[in-house]
Write a structure and sequence with these properties.
elongated; two-stranded antiparallel ribbon; 35 helices; 72% helix; single chain; mainly alpha; 2 strands
Length: 686
Amino acid sequence: MASIVLFTFVALFPSLKNGFVNWDDPAMVTENPRIRNISRENVKWMFTTFINGHYLPMTLLSFSLDYVLWGLNPLGYHLTNLLIHIANAVILYCLALFLFDLTRKNMRIKGRKPFMVCAGLSALLFSVHPLRVESVAWVTERRDVLSALFYLLSVLAYLKAQSYSANPIKYKGLMAGAVLSLLISLLSKAWGVSVPLILLILAIYPLRRLGTKETGWFSRKTWKVWVEKVPFFILAIGAMLIAPLAQKAASAAFSFKEYGIPLRLAQAFYGITFYLKKSLVPVKLVPMYEIPQPFNPLEFRFISSAVLVVIITGLLILFRRKWPSGLAVWTSYIIIVAPVLGLFQSGIQLVADRYSYLACMGWAVLLGGGILSLWQKSRRQRIYRPVLSSILLLMILWLTVLGVLTWQQAGRWKNSLTLWKYTSTADPENIMAHYNIACIFMEENQDKEAIRYYRKVVRLFPAHVKALNNLGTLLKDQGKYKEAIRYYKRALRYNPNVPGIYTNLAQAYEKQGDIEAAAGYYKRALSLTRDPLIYNGLGEMLLRHNETEKAIEVYREFVAAMPDNVQAHHTLGILLARQGKLVEAAFHHRKVLKIQPGHAEANNNLANVLARQGKIGEAVQYYRRAIKADPNFTNAYVNLGVVLLWQGEIEEAGKWFNKALEIDPENRTARENLNRIGNLKKREKH
C-alpha cells in the first residue's frame, strides 16, 4: 500500500507546482466570494445553487476549507486534489483485494501475497495513468476525485456488508455507511447515479446472489438483494432529476432538435472506444476534444467505433459463462460512462479525459485479476512461470512509462498559457485552445498576438461570436474602425441578441463620426436589455457632440426604466440645471439624495440649484451636508463661501475659501474670492 501512495505522489508531483487556469477555476475558486468563509449564508448558497451546469455543494464546501487553510495559494488546492486521488487509489486497492479474495477458494493459492501484489498493480494502473491527470491537476475537477472517493467507499461498504449478513448490527451499519457515502458522492458530483446498477452487477458477479440456478432473479432468496438496493436507487433517481435542472440553469444542454439522435449515437459509440484506446495509448491527451464542425456521423471513426462496440458486446455475451468477469466489467464500464457519452449532451466536448476517471477502474481490476489467474496456473504448471515473470516485468515497465507520461502531462497544466499552447500544438485545429490563448494575450495587452489567435479561431469556426466580437474590439482600439465594424456585423449575423456587440458597433461608428448610426446601435442594444451602461454610453456620446436635448431625452428614458438609478437622476439633474430648468433639476437631485443621502455631489448640485432660486439658507444647509459627506470636496467649500459672500458674511465666507485652499492650493476661484474679500476690507477701512 505504501508503494501505491509513493508512486502516485511522485507521478503527479508536478501538479503541486501548478497555478489556477482560466477554465472554470475563476468561477469555482479564484473569483468566487462564496467560498471565502464558511458562513451559514454561504453554506446555504452552496446547497441551493447550480454552478457551471453542476450541483456540487460538497465540492464547494471543500474549496471553502482549502481557502481557510491556504487562501488563494494554488498549492493547497492541488495538494488536496492529489491526496484525495491517492486515497482513491488506496480504496481501489482494498476493493480489488476484496474481489480477488472472493475467488480465493477456487484459486488455491497459498498466502495473501499474490492477491496483494495483483490488487496493488490494479491500483497503480489506475492511479498513475495519464488519463487521471485532468481530474487531479485541474483544480475545478475536485468534483471528480471527491465524488469518486465516496463512490468507492459506498461500493466497498456494500461489499463488506455482505460479509456480515449473519451479524445484523454490522450489516446494517455498513449498509447505512454505503448509503451515506453515496449521498455525499452525489453532493460532490452526479457520478454516483450509476452506483445502484453497479451494485446489481456485483450481486450477479462475483457475489452470485442474483441470476444463478440456485437463486434465480425474483425468488424469496433474492428478495433481500432487491430491497437493499432501494435506498441507493432513491438517491440516484433524485440526482437524475436535479442534473437536467443544473444543465438548464447553465444553458449547457443541447436539445434533440439542434443535436439529433444520429449525432448522439455516433458520439456515444466513439466515446466507448475512445477511453479504451487512450488507456492503451495515452498520448496527445488534451483538455478539450471538440465536437467536429461539421459533424458527420458516417465518418469512419464513428462507424468503426459502433461496429467494434457491437462485436465486443456480442463476444462477451457469447463467452459470459467462461469469462463472466469480462462481461461484468464491460457492462459496468458502459453504465458508468453512459451519462457523459453524448446521449444527454451538455457542452461542446466530444469526449473528455476526466470522464474515464471512474469508468476505467474496472479494467485495472480486471487486468490485476488476469495476472492473479496466471499466477494460479503457474503454481500448478511450471510452463506458465516464465510467462508470469515476463508479464510482471512488462507491468513494471508499463507502469514506469505511464508514470513518466503522467509526470509530463501534469506539468502541462502549469498555467493557462502553458496548457492551451500545448493543446494547440497537439491539436492544431482546436478552437477552444486558440480562443483561450487569444483571451490571455488580450488580457495582457499583447494585441498583436491576440489578433493572430482570434483570426485562427474565426478561420476554423466562422460562427464563433465571442472571437468575432473580441477581434472587432482589438481592431477598433487600433483605429481600424471599418474592419472592426465588419467583424461586429459578422458576429451579429450569427447571434443578433448580444447587446454588447451593438454597443461596440455604436462606439466604432462614433469614432468614424457617424453619430446617427451610433445612436441607432445604442438603441438596438437597449431594445434587448435595460443596461445602465448602455444608457450612459448613448447619453455621454450625445453630450460629446453637443446634442444636449437628445441626451436629456435619453436620461428621461433612463429614469423611467430604472427609477432608483442614482446615476440617471444625477446626470439628468445636472443637464436640466444647465438649461435653467431649476425646479425639475432640484427634483432629480432630491431623488438622488433620497436613495443615497450621503451623495456629496448631489448635495452640492442641489445647493447650487437652490442658490440660483434665491433659497440661500437652504442652499447653505446642503453645502454643509456635501462637505460632511466628503471633507475633501473643494467645490463645496468654494460654493458655500460664494453664497455666504453674497449675503455679506465676509468673515465666514473667507473661512471656507481658506479651507478650500488648504485642500487645493491652486484653486483659482477660492484665491480670487479671498482677494476680493481683502479689497472689500480695504475699502471699508478707507
